[in-house]
Amino acid sequence: MHKIMIIEDDMTIARIIKEHLCKWNYDAANITDFKNIIEQIISFQPQLILLDVMLPFFNGFYLCGEIRKISKVPIIFISSANDNMNIIMAMNMGGDDFIVKPFDLNVLTAKVGALIRRTYSFNGKMNIIEHKGVILNLNDTTLNYKNNKIILTKNEYKILQILMDNIGKVVSREEIMQHLWENDEFVDDNTLTVNITRLRKKLEEFGLENFIITKKGLGYMVE
C-alpha cells in the first residue's frame, strides 16, 4: 500500500481526494498543520505528494523546494492556477506533474498510479534519517538543522550515518571503524578519535552540543 500525502488547504477537496485514493487501496493522509508541513512529511514518509500552489504560510513552490532538499519523492501539483508560468515554475522547482482544478478524480488516480510505477523500482523510502530536528540527507551526505546546511566530509557522514541508524544504542569504536573501512580506506583508532573530535566541533558551531555522546569503554551514541 503506497503512502500519499495531500497538501491542500481546502478541507472539502482534501477529504474527497483522500476518500477516493483510499478506495484505490492507497494510504492517504491530509496535512492539518500548515505551519509545520515538512515535519509532517518526515513523520509520514509518503511515497507521493499531492501539492497545492496556494497555501497558508508558504506556497507550494517554496515547499517543493524545501522537500527537494531532503527527498526525491514524486510531487504532483494540483492547482487552479493553470497559466503556463505556474506550470513552468512547478516543474522548475522539482515537481513531476501538474493537474489543473477542477479535475476528474479518475484522471488524478491514473496520474498517481503511473508516477508511482515509474518511480518505485527501488524501495520507495525517503533518503533521510531524522532525529530531534537533525536531518541527515543520504542523497548528498549533508546535515540539515534549523535551516542550516552542514557540509560533511565522507568520514563525518559515515560516522553520523551509523550512529543515527542506531538511535539510543551504543555503537562500539570497532563497529564504527569497520563501517569507515568499507571503502578500502584504513582508519585506525587514533584517526577515529580525530574524526569524532572534528565532527563534534563542527556540530557545536551549529548549536548541536553533546549530539554525540561518549560511553567510556563502550563507544559512542546519539540519544
TrEMBL record:
<dbReference type="Pfam" id="PF00072">
    <property type="entry name" value="Response_reg"/>
</dbReference>
<keyword id="KW-0597">Phosphoprotein</keyword>
<feature type="domain" description="OmpR/PhoB-type">
    <location>
        <begin position="126"/>
        <end position="223"/>
    </location>
</feature>
<dbReference type="GO" id="GO:0005829">
    <property type="term" value="C:cytosol"/>
</dbReference>
<dbReference type="GO" id="GO:0006355">
    <property type="term" value="P:regulation of DNA-templated transcription"/>
</dbReference>
<dbReference type="Pfam" id="PF00486">
    <property type="entry name" value="Trans_reg_C"/>
</dbReference>
<dbReference type="InterPro" id="IPR001867">
    <property type="entry name" value="OmpR/PhoB-type_DNA-bd"/>
</dbReference>
<feature type="modified residue" description="4-aspartylphosphate">
    <location>
        <position position="52"/>
    </location>
</feature>
<dbReference type="InterPro" id="IPR039420">
    <property type="entry name" value="WalR-like"/>
</dbReference>
<dbReference type="InterPro" id="IPR016032">
    <property type="entry name" value="Sig_transdc_resp-reg_C-effctor"/>
</dbReference>
<protein>
    <recommendedName>
        <fullName>Stage 0 sporulation protein A homolog</fullName>
    </recommendedName>
</protein>
<keyword id="KW-0805">Transcription regulation</keyword>
<comment type="function">
    <text>May play the central regulatory role in sporulation. It may be an element of the effector pathway responsible for the activation of sporulation genes in response to nutritional stress. Spo0A may act in concert with spo0H (a sigma factor) to control the expression of some genes that are critical to the sporulation process.</text>
</comment>
<dbReference type="InterPro" id="IPR011006">
    <property type="entry name" value="CheY-like_superfamily"/>
</dbReference>
<dbReference type="GO" id="GO:0000156">
    <property type="term" value="F:phosphorelay response regulator activity"/>
</dbReference>
<dbReference type="GO" id="GO:0032993">
    <property type="term" value="C:protein-DNA complex"/>
</dbReference>
<keyword id="KW-0804">Transcription</keyword>
<dbReference type="InterPro" id="IPR001789">
    <property type="entry name" value="Sig_transdc_resp-reg_receiver"/>
</dbReference>
<keyword id="KW-0238">DNA-binding</keyword>
<feature type="DNA-binding region" description="OmpR/PhoB-type">
    <location>
        <begin position="126"/>
        <end position="223"/>
    </location>
</feature>
<feature type="domain" description="Response regulatory">
    <location>
        <begin position="3"/>
        <end position="116"/>
    </location>
</feature>
<dbReference type="InterPro" id="IPR036388">
    <property type="entry name" value="WH-like_DNA-bd_sf"/>
</dbReference>
<dbReference type="GO" id="GO:0000976">
    <property type="term" value="F:transcription cis-regulatory region binding"/>
</dbReference>
